[in-house]
Design a protein that fits this description.
mainly beta, six-stranded mixed sheet, five-stranded mixed sheet, 27 strands, 0% helix, 49% strand
Length: 301
């Protein structure tokens, strides 16, 4: 996957503690940064989906940490280092890449993957994003914002960005999905987490309780702990992940970002990764807990 900035001006190395990576990359927003950034991956869990319940089960090993992690941040800040290296500065409209050192798995390097301010997104505050296989970036914003060429976009919209070719520094923005066109019309229905399923369908979570078009002219009511999937052919939403089935019910357990890995045909599973708005405790066949700085991994069977 190619960055829009092949030689980032802002790079820094940081010590971290992580499991050996096996997935190629992962992108998720992080909501708090301290002097030494620690990206914690929870113990692996297996999620079994049946008609009546979702079950978390303990599996052998740990969720593998990807070789590259793409991050977004809630606010602009900097990462301070104790040694002589320059502090790493980032903004809330940026996407940051953290690349693990292959020869030294407890260290890695930060760089700017997407510099939002260079392309007119100063203080836009990316809420969640996805890097598609063809290199297109799609994202949603934390609040309404005016983008040149599009006008005012809503925080229920999903915006696309295609990198420029040749010598131009910035590419083009467009609408990937208009929120009101897919039934996201209320304030509680703004998007705060988005991903793309293996079949190309959009998967989202909303900031609050949403009532959206379901199958057979029905209405589907979902909470901010759920994930829903858009079917462009039928123009309906369906429940993709029911958070309450695994005891994600507290206000601190709002899904804030999601990444959906490709389906592993050999194992018959699909790994997904989540960050939540605060302290969380999932419960089923096993228990697992963490906070807003953690990435929770599970596998859909």
């Amino acid at each position: 996957m190619k960055s829009n900035n092949e030689s980032p001006a802002r790079t820094s190395k940081v010590e971290t503690y992580a499991q050996r990576p096996s997935q190629p990359w992962l992108r998720l927003p992080v909501f708090l940064v301290v002097a030494v950034v620690m990206v914690t991956l929870s113990a692996v869990t297996v999620l079994t989906d049946s008609s009546s319940r979702n079950v978390w089960q303990q599996s052998a090993g740990t969720v593998p940490q990807p070789a590259i992690i793409y991050l977004g941040f809630k606010s602009s800040d900097e990462i301070e280092f104790d040694d002589d290296q320059e502090d790493f500065i980032y903004k809330n409209e940026d996407i940051v890449a953290f690349v693990l050192d292959a020869t030294e798995p407890t260290s890695g390097t930060f760089s700017i993957y997407f510099d939002g301010s260079e392309c007119g997104l100063t203080d836009a505050n990316l809420d969640d994003f996805e890097i598609l296989d063809d290199g297109m970036l799609i994202f949603t914003l934390r609040s309404e914002f005016t983008i040149e060429g599009l006008g005012e976009v809503d925080d229920s919209d999903v915006i696309s960005y295609t990198s420029a070719s040749g010598t131009e520094s910035c590419g083009t923005f467009g609408y990937y999905v208009r929120g009101e066109a897919v039934g996201l019309t209320q304030g509680e229905e703004d998007i705060d987490a988005l991903g793309v399923d293996e079949d190309g369908s959009l998967v989202i979570s909303t900031i609050g309780t949403a009532i959206v078009p379901g199958i057979d002219d029905s209405e589907l009511e979902v909470k901010d702990t759920d994930l829903i999937k858009w079917d462009a052919e039928t123009e309906t939403w369906s429940l993709y992940f029911n958070g309450s089935d695994v005891d994600l019910t507290d206000t601190s357990e709002d899904i804030r970002s999601v990444w959906l890995d490709a389906f592993n045909a050999a194992q018959g599973i699909q790994n997904i990764y989540l960050t939540l708005s605060g302290d969380f405790d999932v419960e089923s066949d096993n228990d697992d807990e963490g906070d807003k700085n953690d990435v929770e991994g599970c596998s859909l069977l």
